[in-house]
Amino acid sequence: QSALTQPASVSGSPGQSITISCSGTSSNVGGYNLVSWYQQLPGKGPKLLIYEDNKRHSGLSLRFSASKSGNTASLTISGLQIEDEADYYCCSYAGGVTLVFGGGTKLTVL
Amino acid sequence: EVQLVESGGHLIQPGGSLRLSCEASGFNFGERGMHWVRQVPGKGLEWVAGISWGSNTKNTADSVKGRFTISRDNARNSLFLQMNSLRPEDTAIYFCAKEAGGSWYTHWALENWGQGTLVTVSS
């Protein structure tokens, strides 16, 4: 149950696009179409953004999109806004009743 | 409105035991899988344990296997985490979370989270 690998930090300017990667193995990310992404604002609980690799949770802005290729999933945020500054986590189903999270990526909007 | 309210966290000595509870409301609890996820303040999320709607399938992370047990009582809309042989590295905020999906099916994502309960393991 090794954690998925995410960059520790990414940054971008308002209006730009950024992509956060999430690397796993064929036992998790690459083995199922079940990657989810979460946003955690400072002092708050996590909020579901994306499920089943690329499906937006209800009400999510179209600025958020996700994809997957092999054992690597990606979250893209376009038209960056100040309020997007947060920690982002990927998560994958790993068989049975098991989930595995990435280490998290801190997004800074400069 | 979905509500998940955790309780039971407090300061405990290494080697001690603690039982966390999560009281659920606003949805058909018995039709959804549930999970515990923890977070050391300032650090990342770590999945701890999960249980299917009927309790027939459950699992725990390798880091807590043999020490933590997840269970649920659908009649009381409650989720539990029995934590034994606690270690300082178990110190974290513990969240309960509900699977996204519908009645008896899941997207294997966590769409609702509680506010968390803090467990501190220290002498």
Notes on the structure:
The complex is a heterodimer of chains A (110) and B (123). Chain A has strands at residues 9-12, 18-23, 35-40, 47-51, 55-56, 64-69, 72-77, 86-93, 99-101, 105-109. Chain A has 110 residues and is mostly beta strands. In chain A, strand 4 and strand 5 (55-56) form a beta hairpin. With 123 residues, chain B is an all-beta fold. Chain B is 0% helix and 55% strand. Chain B has strands at 3-7, 11-12, 18-25, 34-39, 45-51, 58-60, 68-73, 78-83, 92-102, 105-113, 117-121. Chain B is globular and about 45 Å long. The relative contact order of chain B is 0.31. The interface between A and B is medium-sized, with 29 and 28 residues.
Q: Give me the strand/helix succession of chain B.
A: EEEEEEEEEEE
What is the N-to-C succession of helices and strands of chain A?
A: EEEEEEEEEE
Helix content, binned percent of chain B: under 10%
Question: End-to-end distance of chain A, in Å?
Answer: 35 Å
What order do the helices and strands come in, and which of them pair?
The complex is a heterodimer of chains A (110) and B (123).
Chain A: E1 9-12, E2 18-23, E3 35-40, E4 47-51, E5 55-56, E6 64-69, E7 72-77, E8 86-93, E9 99-101, E10 105-109
Parallel strand pairs in A: 1-10
Antiparallel strand pairs in A: 2-7, 3-4, 3-8, 4-5, 6-7, 8-9, 8-10
Chain B: E1 3-7, E2 11-12, E3 18-25, E4 34-39, E5 45-51, E6 58-60, E7 68-73, E8 78-83, E9 92-102, E10 105-113, E11 117-121
Parallel strand pairs in B: 2-11
Antiparallel strand pairs in B: 1-3, 3-8, 4-5, 4-9, 5-6, 7-8, 9-10, 9-11
